[in-house]
Write a structure and sequence with these properties.
- 2 copies of one chain form a homodimer.
- Chain A is 46% helix and 17% strand.
- In chain A, the strands form 2 sheets. In chain A, strands 1-2-3-4-5-8-9-10 form an 8-stranded parallel beta barrel, surrounded by 7 helices. The first copy, chain A, has a two-stranded antiparallel ribbon with strand order 6-7.
- Chain A has 13 helices and 10 strands.
- The two termini of chain A are 26 Å apart.
- In chain A, helix 3 runs parallel beside helix 5, helix 6 runs parallel beside helix 7 and helix 9 packs parallel to helix 10.
- In chain A, helix 7 links the parallel strand 4 and strand 5.
- Chain A is globular.
- Chain A has a single domain, classed as Aldolase class I (TIM Barrel).
- With 270 residues, chain A is α/β, with parallel strands linked by helices.
- Chains A and B meet through helix 4, helix 5, helix 6, helix 7 and helix 8 of A and helix 4, helix 5, helix 6, helix 7 and helix 8 of B.
Chain lengths: 270, 270
C-alpha cells in the first residue's frame, strides 16, 4: 500500500484531515508525569495517540524536539513511531536535505531506519537533492514551498521572472511528481499563497499545512483554499494547540476534545 | 574563546585550511576493522583523527552518515566529537532549519547537546529561522549560499532583481553578521561564484568550501578565490577523498598522506 492509499484510507475512516504534531517539550508536558512514570515522554506520546487515533489522518513528529535529547531522543522517536497504529501515516518533519550522495543517506534514514511514510524536505539545493527521496515510490516527500513563519518573505517571496520564488518551487514540485509521490508544505498563516499553490499543483498533490492553532492560521480559509475539488488532499497540522492544551492528569482527555473540535471545524468547511 | 579564535589558533598552529570530513560509510571503511574491532566505526574515526590532527584546521561531521544508524549513530557522533582534540573546531553539517520555535531546538541540539563549534544551516525559511542560531555568539553558523551540486542552479541561480538568488543570500549573510558569527557554504565546484561571494562578504566572514576531492573542485581556484586578502578565512573540506583513500590495514597512514598532500597543495596557492 502506498502513502496516498494509506492516507486516504484513514482519512475516510476517521473522517478527518487533522494531523496531530507530537512535538514533545520538557517544559510543557504535565509535571505529574515526571512523578508517576519512568518514561514520561513516551507515556505522554502514547496517551495522546490513544486519545486521538480515531479522529486523525496522520501524526507528524518534528525531529528537532527529539534530537535535542541526543540518543535518548532517537530512542523515543523510534518507540513513538512503533506505537502509532500501522494504518495511520507517520510524517517525519525534519526539513532535511543535502547534495545527492548525502541526500540518499537522509532518505534511507527517514524511510528505512525510522520507517516514515512521509517526510518534509527543503528544496534550496534543487532537483538532484530531491531525487533520492522521490526514488521511494511508495512514500511521500513534502517539499517546503511557502512556510508559515514571518520571514518566509525573505527569499520565498522574491520575484523570479515576475513570479515569487515559492511559485517557481510549486511548479517544480508539479514537474517532479512523476511517481505521484510529491507533496508541498504550505503555511496556513498565508491563505492567499495557499490558494495559488493549490491552483498550481492541481487536485492530486497533497498539501501538509502547519500554522493553524498556536500560529494563528484561520481554519475556514485553510480548508477552503488548501483542499482539492473534493475537499481532500490536505493534511492540516496542529501540535502545541492540541497536545499541550491541558497540563494536569486529564491532559489526554483535554487534547482529545481539542482535536475533536478542530477536526469537526475543518469538516464543516470541506 | 569564540569560534574564530579557536579556528584561527589551530589554523595557524597546523598551518592549515584543510577540514577533514568524517563521513563514515559501512561500505567504504576497511573490512578488516569489522574483524579486529568491537567498535569499527568509532575506531575508524579515532584512527583518522589521530593520523590527521596535526595537519587540519577543523573536522566536519555530516549528520546524515550518523543518523542512518539510529540511536547507535548518535552515540557514535557523540563519542567521535568527544575524541576530537579540544583545540580543533567541530563543524556539524546538518543543513537544518525550521520556523523560529523549532529552530531554537535545533540550535540547542547542535550547539549544546552535541557541543558543536559550528553548524551548517539552510536559508530558505529566512531571517527568523536563522536568528536562533546566531544567538549563540561564540559559535559559527555557516549558511548555505551556493552549494556544490549540479542542481544548485535550479533555484540558487534564478535571477531576483537581476541578481542570482545565491548573491541575495550572500548579501543577507553579510547583513545578519552583527555578532561576527556568520559563515557561508560555497561549493568548490563553482569557482566563479566563489569569487563573487568572497567579494560580497568581504574579508572577515569564513567560507566553508566542500567539493574539492571526489567532487572535482580545483584546488588552485578554490584557494585563490575563496580565501581573504591574507589567504585565510576559508575552510576547505575533503571527506571521501581522504578518509577512504586506503582500505587496508594501513588506511590511516594513507589518509594522512592524502591529507598532508592536500594541505600542502592548498598552502602553495595562499
Amino acid at each position: 500500500m502506498n502513502f496516498k492509499q494509506k492516507f486516504m484510507g484513514t482519512s475516510h475512516k476517521n473522517n478527518s484531515l487533522l494531523c496531530v504534531g507530537l512535538d514533545i517539550d520538557e517544559d510543557k508536558i504535565p509535571k505529574s508525569l515526571f512523578e508517576s512514570s519512568k518514561h514520561p515522554f513516551l507515556d505522554f506520546n502514547k496517551s495522546i495517540i490513544d486519545a486521538t487515533k480515531d479522529i486523525v489522518c496522520a501524526y507528524k513528529l518534528n525531529m528537532a524536539f527529539y534530537e535535542v535529547f541526543g540518543k535518548n531522543g532517537i530512542d523515543l522517536l523510534e518507540k513513538t513511531i512503533e506505537y502509532i497504529p500501522k494504518d495511520i501515516v507517520v510524517i517525519l518533519d525534519g526539513k532535511r536535505n543535502d547534495i545527492g550522495n548525502t541526500a540518499c543517506k537522509y532518505a534511507k534514514t527517514l524511510f528505512e531506519t525510522f520507517s516514515a511514510d512521509a517526510v518534509t524536505i527543503n528544496p534550496y539545493l534543487g532537483k538532484d537533492s530531491v531525487t533520492p527521496f522521490l526514488a521511494y515510490k511508495d512514500k511521500c516527500s513534502f517539499i517546503l514551498c511557502r512556510t508559515s513563519n514571518a520571514s518566509a518573505v525573505d527569499f520565498q517571496d522574491l520575484n523570479v521572472s515576475s513570479l515569487p520564488l515559492y511559485q517557481i518551487v510549486a511548479k517544480k514540485i508539479k514537474e517532479w511528481n512523476e511517481n505521484d509521490n510529491c507533496g508541498a508544505v504550505v503555511g496556513a498563516t498565508y491563505p492567499g499563497e495557499l490558494k495559488i499553490i493549490r491552483t498550481i499543483l492541481g487536485d492530486h498533490i497533497p498539501l501538509l499545512i502547519p500554522g493553524v492553532g498556536k500560529q494563528g492560521g484561520d481554519v475556514e480559509n485553510t480548508v477552503k483554499k488548501g483542499t482539492n475539488n473534493k475537499g481532500e488532499m490536505a493534511i492540516i497540522n496542529s501540535s502545541r494547540g492540541i497536545i499541550f492544551a491541558g497540563n494536569d492528569e486529564d491532559f489526554s482527555e483535554i487534547s482529545r476534545n481539542k482535536a475533536l473540535s478542530l477536526r469537526n471545524e475543518i469538516n464543516k468547511y470541506r
